[in-house]
């Protein structure tokens, strides 16, 4: 009896194996397609255009991102550069050693940058004689030209140095992906903090006090 059923059992086994093998290949194919889609999704995020930060200057919503870098074991000096202002005057970052520097990256078309500038101008007027400097790096290579920058400066009455990154090299050097982005540099030329987003006057005051307190502790 078993011998008579053996061919049917064998046929059933082979049919089952063929179905299993087909199912596994289909799953493998689906997995390959899914992984390919995931890779494409990740790759599509590379090289995205510069974006303005999504935050406001409302004191109740300080949504900027602060990155600290003032550990004695993790000190990074700000990369040096030389850029020219609207009058062609060269400004070298390393020449500002001895001052606390707010290095701000911005563009005229950026709404958070526009919101930030009046606060920055007010802060500058109050602190320019207290060992604090502001350098506003316009990302000219991604902006609407020198005339737009000049119009912006006049419209907002900016008196702190505004320099032009016409080649985009300084923006790349500082890895600027979102604007405004500001680096707070101590008097020795070290990066103390990085702030991504629009700052108000109080945030700037707090940062400067923080760096002054830290320097005082180090000297003590």
Automatic annotation (TrEMBL):
Region (Disordered): 44-64
Gene3D superfamilies for this protein: Glutaredoxin (3.40.30.10)
InterPro entries per UniProt: AhpC/TSA, Thioredoxin-like_sf, Thioredoxin_CS, Thioredoxin_domain, Thioredoxin_ResA/DsbE_sf
Keyword terms, alphabetized: Disulfide bond
A Pfam family of this chain: AhpC-TSA
Protein name: Peroxiredoxin
Thioredoxin domain sequence ranges: 72-213
Keyword Ribosomal protein: no
GO terms of molecular function: antioxidant activity; oxidoreductase activity
Disulfide bond keyword on record: yes
């Amino acid at each position: 009896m078993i011998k008579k059923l053996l061919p049917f059992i064998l046929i059933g086994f082979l049919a089952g194996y063929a179905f299993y093998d087909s199912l596994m290949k289909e799953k493998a194919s689906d997995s390959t397609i899914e992984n390919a889609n995931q890779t494409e999704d990740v790759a599509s995020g590379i090289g995205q255009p510069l974006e303005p930060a999504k935050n406001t200057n409302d004191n109740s919503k300080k949504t900027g991102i602060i990155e600290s870098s003032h550990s004695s074991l993790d000190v990074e000096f700000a990369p040096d550069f030389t850029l020219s202002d609207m009058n062609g005057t060269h400004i070298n970052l390393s020449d500002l050693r001895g001052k606390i520097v707010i290095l701000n990256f911005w563009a005229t078309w950026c709404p958070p940058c526009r919101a930030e500038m009046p606060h920055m101008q007010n802060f500058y007027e109050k602190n320019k004689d207290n060992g604090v400097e502001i350098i506003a790096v316009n990302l000219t290579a991604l902006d609407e030209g020198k005339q737009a920058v000049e119009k912006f400066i006049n419209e907002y009455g900016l008196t702190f140095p505004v320099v032009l990154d016409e080649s985009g090299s300084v923006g790349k050097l500082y890895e600027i992906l979102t604007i405004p982005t500001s680096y707070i540099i101590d008097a020795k030329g070290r990066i103390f903090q990085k702030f991504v987003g629009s700052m108000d006057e109080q945030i700037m005051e707090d940062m400067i006090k923080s760096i002054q307190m830290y320097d005082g502790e180090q000297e003590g």
